[in-house]
Design a protein that fits this description.
The structure holds two protein chains of two kinds. Chain A is of the alpha/beta class. Helices cover 38% and strands 17% of the residues of chain A. Chain A contains 14 helices and 16 strands. Chain A has a six-stranded mixed β-sheet with strand order 3-4-2-1-5-6, with helices on both faces. Chain A has a six-stranded parallel β-sheet with strand order 13-12-11-14-15-16. Chain A has a four-stranded parallel β-sheet with strand order 9-8-7-10, with helices on both faces. In chain A, helix 5 links the parallel strand 7 and strand 8. Chain A is globular. Chain A starts with 9 loop residues before the first helix and ends with a helix. By secondary structure, chain B is α/β, with parallel strands linked by helices. Chain B has six helices and four strands, in the order αβαβαβαβαα. Chain B starts with a helix and ends in a 9-residue tail after the last helix. The interface between A and B is large, with 58 and 44 residues.
């Protein structure tokens, strides 16, 4: 008996869909396009060739890609569909819904087949493939950990989050705070899979927070999933497996952002107000600020590091800091642990609990989209958040739109970085700061 | 729950996984499982859900390029599911065994072509809150959320 035969790859799924299309009579008459000059295009073209399908062009909204070729097929504007009568568009991207809509709008009433080549909804990363025996051992380990926790906290609700990221934990803590208030649940133990997550939860003064390893968290969740959330006295603060899939499907069909649905279907919150922590503890004195090279209302704090999402190149930050200095700003880099400051700037460590006070003193904050943007979102200073290119999200579980943090960071202005567009991004950031 | 109760429950649930796994391997020839195979575990007593699955079975297969759509369900629902040429119905005698199968597939396996149709939220079922809140009808729920079937014109 071998469960491994159960698993198939995305590539097999894509091949299956292409072979299916190749069997349709339309495949011999319709012009074929691939939407997305992304990393999958090459694989799709090769598979199309294997099934005798000729790709006419690759479509992409990024003007910088137009004219480039992948496997000899040219990348063009989606508007080329205006010249076609009968066409098929293959889509394989995290933004398949948006692409789908765009294609429909361009094509109108003409004959069109849209084929989604694979399902992006699944959380492939969380569950690791292994033999049945290994999985049972993991369950045992989850049970042992659960019982150890229960020995210390016999009657408390155990609230579990499998994400280690700062942003996810901050969002969960915001909603959990309200959930706990409404359910009168004061004796909760929050269990998180990283030390940095503990720091985030401490900002809220909700309950005791315990850090365990990521592997332990996986095992614990497996065990709790087996026993049952209610039966084990636990609460999952992030949906997974069937519920996650159902929430994603629901958001897509109703065109809602995941972040807007999440409070309701995970925390059972319908009408709520978020109570943001005020982060003014242990802000350095004026003299200490001076020693760090910080001048009040004249200093830009750069935050170039991100754990989940892609970062910008080092050279971008170096050029940005030079440009800002030319404009008369002082520039420092927010760093933690072994992170290095941007060349030519001084590194400062800003504890979460002092971030509002610190940034308000400096006056300016420029960050790649990362978890710190969530925590710093209420600081009353000029905030610029740089979003990495959309292509970067192809394999990510978080929809691009969900990264907008309007509620959490009302002062932030966004700059969408385009691939190969560093100079434009830099110009835009400086322009917004000077406004 | 006390530790002893938890441990008892753990033993029971673990047994369920083993039962579920046993049922699965007894009824399915795993050599035949591939990307063109999907499974629905119908662990529900809501007959309307069964009828809706049958209604949308063909579209589900077409949308995902499926050759075989296995449905595990109680014997009494055979008559409903056998209305569909697309479905291969596997009759399970005991409702708890069906839940055991759902448990095995949900705890051990996570791939996109296992659909769990249940009545409770042990398996993450969202039908009740969505329907209760008037967000969608049962039909919309089965079509758009549980099975995620694209609109006919795109098939």
């Amino acid at each position: 008996m071998c469960e491994r035969q159960f698993f198939y790859s995305r590539e097999e799924e894509v091949e299956n869909n292409i072979s299916l299309y190749a069997q349709q009579p339309e495949s011999r008459i319709y012009s074929l396009f691939i939407f997305g000059g992304n990393r999958f295009a090459k694989m799709i073209i090769n598979k199309c060739n294997a099934y005798g399908l000729k790709v006419k062009a690759i479509l992409d909204n990024d003007t910088l890609k137009w004219g480039e070729e992948i496997e000899g097929i040219m990348i063009k504007s989606p508007n080329v569909l205006l010249d076609e009568q009968n066409m098929t568009v293959f889509i394989m991207s995290r933004f398949e819904d948006e692409m789908h809509k765009q294609v429909e709008e361009i094509v109108g009433d003409r004959d069109l087949i849209i084929c989604h080549l694979c399902d992006f909804d699944m959380e492939y990363k969380f569950w690791r493939e292994g033999s049945f025996e290994q999985e049972m051992v993991r369950l045992e380990e989850g049970r042992d950990l659960y019982l150890r926790l229960r020995k210390s906290y016999s009657n408390n609700l155990l609230a579990l989050i499998y994400s280690e990221s700062v942003g996810d934990n901050y969002m969960c803590a915001l909603y959990y705070q309200e959930y706990a208030r409404l359910s009168d649940n004061k004796e909760t133990i929050i269990v998180v899979p990283s030390n940095v997550a503990v720091k985030v939860w401490k900002l809220f003064n909700i309950g005791k927070v315990i850090a365990i390893s990521k592997i332990d968290m996986d095992n614990l969740l497996k065990f709790v999933m087996l026993i049952g959330e209610k039966e084990s006295g636990c609460f999952y603060m992030w949906p997974f497996y069937n519920r996650q899939r159902q929430i994603y499907n629901y958001t897509r069909v109703r065109h809602k952002a995941f972040s807007s649905v999440f409070p309701e279907y995970v925390f059972r919150l319908k009408n709520y107000t978020l109570d943001f922590p005020k982060l003014y503890d242990n802000v350095p004195s004026e003299t200490e600020m001076k020693d760090m090279g910080i001048v009040k209302d004249m200093t830009v704090v750069l935050s170039p590091y991100a754990n989940t999402l892609p970062e910008m190149r080092e050279i971008f930050w170096k050029r940005l800091s030079e440009r800002l200095k030319e404009k008369g700003y002082y520039v420092v880099t927010n760093i933690a642990g072994s992170q290095k400051p941007v060349d030519g700037t001084r590194g400062v460590y800003i504890p979460f609990e002092s971030i509002d006070g610190f940034l308000e003193y400096c006056g300016y904050f420029v960050s790649i989209r990362n978890g710190l943007c969530d925590i710093a979102g209420r600081a009353k200073c000029k905030q610029i958040v740089i979003f990495p290119p959309q292509e970067a999200f192809d394999y990510d579980e978080v929809a691009y739109d969900d990264l907008h943090i309007d509620d959490i960071a009302p002062f932030a202005e966004y700059v969408i970085h385009k691939k190969n567009g560093e100079m434009d991004t830099l110009k835009r950031v400086v322009e917004l700061l000077s406004r | 729950m006390m530790y002893t109760e938890i441990d008892q429950r753990y033993k029971k649930e673990k047994e369920k996984i083993l039962i579920g796994r046993g049922i699965f391997f007894e009824t399915i020839d795993i050599a035949q499982i591939n990307v063109q195979t999907a499974f629905i575990v119908f662990a529900s007593k809501d007959i309307r859900k069964a009828e809706l699955i049958v209604k949308y079975a063909e579209r589900l297969c077409k949308a995902n390029g499926l050759k075989v759509l296995y449905v595990f369900g109680l014997k009494k629902y055979r008559v409903i599911f056998e209305n569909s040429e697309k479905i291969e119905f596997i009759s399970i005698d005991i409702f708890d065994h069906l839940l055991a199968l759902a448990k095995y597939l949900s705890v051990y396996h996570n791939f996109s072509r296992i659909y769990l149709i249940t009545d409770n939220d042990e398996f993450g079922e969202l039908s009740k809150p969505l329907i209760r809140e008037g967000e969608m009808s049962l039909e919309e729920y089965i079509r758009d959320v549980a099975l995620r079937i694209p609109e006919e014109k795109f098939l």
